User: Fold these one by one.
Assistant:
Number 1:
Amino acid sequence: MSVIEIIKNRRATPPRLFAKKDLPNGSVEELLRSANWAPNHKKTEPWRFKVYRGEAKAKLAADARTLLLEKQKEGYPVAPEKIEKFASTIEQVPVAIAVILQPDSAGRLPEWEEIAAVSMAVQNMWLTATEMDLAAFWATPTFIELFDRLLELENNQKSLGFFYVGQVMMDFPSPGRRDWKEKIEWKD
Ligand SMILES: Cc1cc2nc3c(=O)[nH]c(=O)nc-3n(C[C@H](O)[C@H](O)[C@H](O)COP(=O)(O)O)c2cc1C
């Protein structure tokens, strides 16, 4: 596939459509190697990933369910169905990668630049997954703001959601895009 074909074929595939099959270690490593080539300002390389599989993934799902139900009882606005959907998705996907922002310790950059760099690292993984015929999805529910302890984040780190990867069970249709020309102003 050419780069433009990979870009167009990349899909946010709902994890319920992932095949119930494991992913070889080598495939996950390939995605992470690709992430590491993302552009970044001042060479801060602000992306960090925690790869959850097997028992660690089952524990993450169970701990997330417990934490969110507790918070919900204390008044945090999250519906029990959302909690269940989130936890069961983590249980079902073969690999859940926590996407983490590691800000520059010297504070030389505005946060948006570092979020942009992490997002480019995620896009690298996503495009590489597409080329490898894998399914992927980036989930960013609001309640991940509660996950610092669960993900054992260091003080200044921030969770930017979960990137799920699996084997393609079926192709998911593209929602398409509005015309690119609507978003452009040519200045000649
Ligand atoms: C930063 C970011 C966060 C996202 N978070 C979610 C999410 O929490 N839930 C969701 O259903 N889709 C999420 N998506 C995926 C979008 O829904 C998806 O990209 C969009 O529907 C377009 O589909 P496509 O990527 O297959 O072209 C996210 C995408 C990005 C870039």
Note: The CA atoms of residues 99 and 160 lie 5 Å apart.
Number 2:
Amino acid sequence: MDNINIECEPKSIGIRLPLQLESKDLFLHQNGCLLLVSEDELKFINEKRKYNNSKNSILEWGEDKKVYLTEEGDAFIINKPLGEGKFGEVKLAQNIDDGAFMAAKECIFSPRGSEGKTKERYFNKEKENLQGLGKLAGQLNMLNKESKQKTIISIFPYVHGIDYKDINNLNSKKTGLLIVKAIEALAEFHDKGYLHLDINPGNLKWDEKEKKCTLIDLGNANKGLEKKDVTILGPQGALAPELDPDKIIKVGRTYTTKTEMFSMGILIEDLLDKVTDKNSMEFIELQTLVAALKSSAEIRPDTLETIKKSIEVAEKIGLDPTYLNSTKALFERMAAKMILEPLERLTQELNKITISESLKIENVGQPAVTFSNEAEKVASNTPYILPILENHFENPIIISKIGIGNK
Ligand SMILES: Nc1ncnc2c1ncn2[C@@H]1O[C@H](COP(=O)(O)OP(=O)(O)OP(=O)(O)O)[C@@H](O)[C@H]1O
Ligand SMILES: [Mg+2]
């Protein structure tokens, strides 16, 4: 009888290879890991790690073999280029202990000049943001004493997919999916309490298999949803008009979630410029998003309104509803936060009502909702409370009788 031993299957058999790799680039190791180094190379690297104590340094051998050793004691083998930006070259990397694919962004500069200072600031900021989001795998800082050149290398997770800037020849419906997911990615970033401040098609990646958009390039991003600044940040050519860099008095210019949404409007406009069916109903629908996001600050939708609008458009153009599950879940989460946070604040202030008392459900035949006076005051000043209540309680008539409406 044949002996089938499932345990023999390599652990990493289901691994998704980065687009830049082929299976022949990888070696299968005894522990089931698929690595970019052979068994001999792995032994060599581990010997060096043990005896050299060479942390925060680069180990090089052969023609172009390189390993970055971080302060934390991790080792990353460096492979093919992933892309290049203003601040540095990004290469594919792999953690040789667990096989995880990473990206390594590297920059060599003279720390003296103003350009060097800008680069250093960018790398420090990106490090801080990646750390804050739990995404930094390590950063190497090295100074070449002879040339006085500084090298900084940041290592963070590899993101599957292609840049939005390289997307061409799609029809409007497919582009619509990429747009909804771009809005979702930005809204999620805002939900985590960050502004990205450089929304442009080179900083968004599309993963076709997962139908997911990921924001990259966090060197301009800011913890906090408002940033006052006198310097010009953000995507060139896609700055909201209220941030007009030609203003003589630059003080008081404030980047907000709404200024980000303007940049998103420009990004969507650029994507729509490249679609194959400009006369379609889907194209016209998607243009309504551009018009809303490019409108003046007073009437421009905020993050939550933008997600809501994008879901409505997605439904009109007939996108597969399963693709919208995560978008809808995010909308609900953010909307609930907008209701609960003010209610919680009010509860604390008055120190007498609690959320459960203020949102009392009476089970008389059908569920109804009653509010205490104070809670009602807050609720009526809280946008989006109606759709949320309607979703949670099945009797919208009673809710609307209370007089709590949309914004
Ligand atoms: N985590 C990642 N996974 C995969 N590819 C990446 C990753 N980060 C960056 N890249 C690739 O490298 C390119 C440059 O990266 P990034 O935008 O972060 O660099 P940058 O120097 O800040 O660029 P710029 O400021 O000019 O936009 C990206 O457009 C992308 O193609
Ligand atoms: Mg970039």
Note: Residues 1-12, 349-369, 392-407 have pLDDT under 50 and may be disordered.
Number 3:
Amino acid sequence: MTRKVLVCPVCNSTDVELDTGGVSGKYYCKNCGYIGSYVMEMTEGEYEEMLKMEEMKKEHDESK
Ligand SMILES: [Zn+2]
């Protein structure tokens, strides 16, 4: 079974949980304080891939 993770669209943290027990239907990011109904849901493998892509982008930007 593949574990799914919730990912904050603002800071890419997985420290995301349903706000106030899911009453509002919104998600809360403990890392940056983002609250919203949209978060990314992906498998851990996809998340690793995404982090790798972000790293590559960063390195590319710094080399400018
Ligand atoms: Zn966040």
Note: Residues 8, 10-11, 13, 29, 31-32, 34 surround zinc ion (CB under 6 Å).
Number 4:
Amino acid sequence: MIEARSTFRSPREVLFALCKRQDWKCAYCGQEMSFDGASSLTPAIEHIIPIVRAGRSEPDNLAAACRTCNSSKGDLTAIEYRAREKLRAAEALGDMKDRLIAKAEFFEARAKCLAEEAARYAAEACGLRQIAGPL
Ligand SMILES: [Zn+2]
């Protein structure tokens, strides 16, 4: 169990714990991350549901991702990001049917994540949860 809110764990310690948990593989592309190699493969703390989308800095919402994936993902949730990457691959290589299926899956993922985001804000408004906290 990784305790991100602990007062004695720095963000760097949390990042190392996440990398160790994932065997130093990026949560999205699966490439091996390192502090010694290419800067694109330097690990970063990744919020599976971004803070700006009412995600929290808690262990079950954190992963380690390479800088390339982390910056490419932006404010998408992990589910949306994976669907978008599948859509991009279909747009580059797939036939029309593959593209339309991938597009439908992306919008389905987006709708699901936006509905969940709305529920998080509603819960926050009702005082049922705190959206964001310190790392
Ligand atoms: Zn990656």
Note: The chain has two domains: 1-73, 76-135.
